[in-house]
Amino acid sequence: MTAVGIDAIEIWTGKLRLDLPNTFAPEMGEDPEKYTKGLGLESSSFPDVYEDIVTMGANAAKQLMDRKGLTPDDIGRIDVATESAFDNSKPVSTYIAGCLEQVYDGDFHHANKGERKFACLAGTQSIDDAYNWIKAGRNRGRAALVIATDTALYERDDPGEATQGAGAVAMLITENPSIVELSTEQGYGSADETDFLKPNQQFPSVDGKRSVQVYLARMREALEDYESVSGDTHPDDFEYIPFHTPFPGMVRKAAVLGYRHMTRDTEIEDELTSEIGRQPREADFESREEYTEAIRDYMDDLKGMDQYREWYAETIEPTLSISRNVGNWYTGSVHIARLSALRHALERGEELAGQQMLVGSYGSGAQAEVHAETIVDGWTEHVEAVEVEDQLARRYDISFDEYELVHDVHNHEKEVDVEAFTTPEAEFVFTGWGRMNERRYEYVE
Ligand code: CAA
EC (predicted)? Predict the structure, then answer.
């Protein structure tokens, strides 16, 4: 069977940086540790005045095409995943293809283009579509370009404001990939939920606390569904477990739940019994509430156990390093979690070929998806080439006053004229609106 998976990854971060503990927290009258310890965030990325989901996506895609030496003819499909689209008809992928055609010979006229929507899950769903297209033999030897791009802004003073971010991840999906091969097995947890939505409005309506519970419930369902096809999972099966990361504190909650689930009826549960007892079984309780309470207590104890802490430090913590410094990239978020883990492994010289990751994606509204990925020989070269640290370091640090202006510039309801904070170089920029209210772009040398 042909292996299909991710052959190359590139990112593009919004070029501005907001320091959460030092710049944002004091103005919000909050303790800086709410951000660093509670949510697990150091800073957020924001788009400069001339950036948006198209420029970030096109810039990530151009980096990827240049590095791989691709021309438009090599790409048979361009799917953009976003929850920040500005057009209900014309997909963002057409804008991005238009940008790329400005700088490459040839065109994408024979590439199938689309836009995927299911909140933050859409990036993973686009990879899924590409996988199916290649497996069905419809790709004519060509690759799929998947771009997850978002400007994750919340209404001013919404609790979600702390978790904002902006950036794009471009991924090339091919046969015989160079980074990871995707499993055929998948699990879904899906239900009609009203936790986070944007009913024809730019900023989301969010029930924050409930969204956290819905994330956990759907992720658990997806893991159970995955196990129904793959067999039981065990913590030792996976080198890393990248989750959708709206903020690292969310993953802390998902990880303990996942570990409890995976260790049930295993030697790890037996080892822990003398210290924290066995996991509560629903049959031993008179009501669902009592059982849930007992599970909660068990997980509180579990978090303090050495076995759990070591597993978390090795398997989960390495997935959070980029997210900690950029905030939520919505559709791109789980994909920067995977990249963080692989960068960490690279720095430590880990030999990962043949090892597995379990990937937990999530989108509000709500659906979780779980699948496995096998890291393939040669992954180091392709992960090393991604300029993560340089991109993060070159961002311009904004003051709180500047943050307020930047939020207004990207608010579709407001018209404000603000000078750019950085100078674009060798990248696509937004230049204004055309006669049919379309957004226009140019490549700046
Ligand atoms: N020191 C250490 N920790 C502190 C602290 C301090 N001084 N102050 C607060 N904390 C901790 C809190 O205890 C809490 O941690 P726990 O949940 O582990 O107890 C954490 O910091 C956050 O504090 P609050 O709960 O008080 O924060 P909040 O009420 O202001 O908002 C939020 C938190 C609801 C997540 C909010 O940021 C939000 O609405 N975010 C947007 C929605 C979201 O991201 N939901 C996640 C699931 S949905 C999803 O994943 C899709 C998506 O991308 C949006």
Answer: 2.3.3.10
